[in-house]
Design brief:
Blueprint lengths: L26 E11 L12 E3 L5 E3 L7 E4 L5 E4 L12 E7 L2 E6 L4 E5 L5 E6 L6 E3 L5 E5 L9 E6 L7 E6 L6 E6 L2 E6 L7 E4 L5 E8 L2 E8 L4 E7 L8 H12 L6 H7 L11 E4 L5 E4 L7 E7 L5 E8 L2 E7 L2 E7 L5 E9 L1
Parallel strand pairs: 1-23
Antiparallel strand pairs: 1-26, 2-3, 3-4, 4-5, 6-7, 7-8, 8-9, 10-11, 11-12, 12-13, 14-15, 16-17, 17-18, 18-19, 20-21, 21-22, 22-23, 24-25, 25-26
Length: 356
């Protein structure tokens, strides 16, 4: 989603660890999962967010417009919200998490975060100026991570909106490296797209919005940077990962994805999308509650999904292999919340444990 804002008070990340990390072969790990929520018979079945809370509380979305589901400590499930822009309503639910017994839920189209009791009663609303991936900070401010794309790449920024403020301020910045653009036919015109097989900056926040991290291409390595909710540097170090080749199967799959639209052919896309020797070292990033970081090493269309799991200090812990039809939603230590999809793309919400 494109976001547009005016950012001020740009702050560079200052703390760094100069030494490069050696990369011994990581230990192998897998997920052992149990079903939390079976496929929905009311929503679209597309689970977009999950918030495991204290005492077996759970909140999640299943594609119902403007609504989420809330299970209290006694096991009762309620449907909360509706489509709209009033109190207790949502246009497009984004992140959600718990602060004690209170659930906060963000809206990616409306610039606000709403707070609910564990029975679904609306408690209060905090607003910003522009839509974004907002979350609450203990001092009453809202913080969000994002970037805007115009004629050139601009940094991924950590933004803060303080109560009653008339602008957003920037707490920290992660650079977006300039990447080759591929002209793709779309709607009767040519649209520039980042080259799908070249490395790009990937950024993410943990569910609680207390830690914000980016993995930045750095030649034969990547640079990992993390800040807290006040823009203070938590981590800045290089991480070396083994390269993976761009195989025929991967290149053909990328061409197939980009060819699947009017005005495009495989021949045209092959002529425009060059084939590099190696894949980007990190194809995605997830940040956990305890500061752990997972880096995606495979594309979503590969037969098996592989993630490199890093400790909070940026050292490699292990390599986690999961089925390709799983989608990771949230991390907390060795616990993972994910969805699995069947042949009809109906999704099951899973609670998993990492097993070495």
């Amino acid at each position: 989603m494109r976001q547009y804002w005016r950012a001020t008070a740009l702050v560079a990340l200052a703390v760094s660890v100069p030494q490069s990390q050696a990369a011994p072969p990581p230990q192998a790990a897998t997920l052992a999962c149990r079903t939390l929520v079976p496929p929905s018979d009311s929503g679209s079945g597309t689970i977009g967010a999950v918030a495991p809370g204290p005492s077996d509380r759970l909140a999640w979305t299943d594609g119902r417009p403007g609504q989420f589901l809330l299970r209290d400590g006694g096991g009762r499930v309620r449907v909360v919200g509706r489509r709209g822009a009033g109190p207790g309503e949502f246009q497009d639910i984004g992140g959600m998490s718990w602060i004690g017994d209170t659930l906060w839920v963000a809206d990616v189209r409306l610039p606000r975060v709403q707070f609910f009791s564990d029975t679904g009663r609306l408690l209060r609303v905090r607003t910003a100026l522009l839509p974004g991936s907002w979350g609450p900070r203990p001092d009453g401010a809202l913080i969000g991570l994002g970037h805007r794309l115009i004629a050139r790449d601009l940094p991924v920024t950590l933004l803060v909106h303080r109560p009653e403020a008339i602008r957003h301020d920037t707490l920290a910045s992660f650079p977006l490296l300039e990447v080759e653009r591929v002209m793709v036919p779309a709607g009767g015109r040519e649209v520039p797209n980042p080259h799908p097989l070249l490395a790009q900056t990937q950024a993410a926040a943990n569910a609680e919005r207390t830690r914000f991290c980016a993995v930045i291409p750095a030649g034969a390595a990547v640079r990992l940077r993390c800040v807290d909710a006040y823009g203070q540097s938590l981590l800045d170090r290089p991480v070396t990962l083994p390269a993976r080749p761009v195989t025929d199967a991967i290149y053909n799959a990328v061409i197939g994805v980009f060819s699947n639209a009017p005005g495009r052919t495989p021949e045209l896309m092959r002529a425009r999308i060059s084939r590099p020797r190696s894949l980007p070292l990190a194809l995605g990033i997830l940040v956990g509650t305890d500061g752990e970081i997972w880096l995606a090493r495979t594309y979503r269309f590969e037969s098996v999904a592989s993630w490199t799991r890093l400790r909070p200090d940026g050292t490699v812990q292990d390599q986690v292999t999961i089925p390709a039809n799983y989608r990771l939603l949230q991390l907390r230590g060795d616990s993972v919340w994910a969805t699995s999809a069947d042949a009809d793309d109906l999704q099951t919400l899973l609670s998993c444990a990492v097993k070495g």
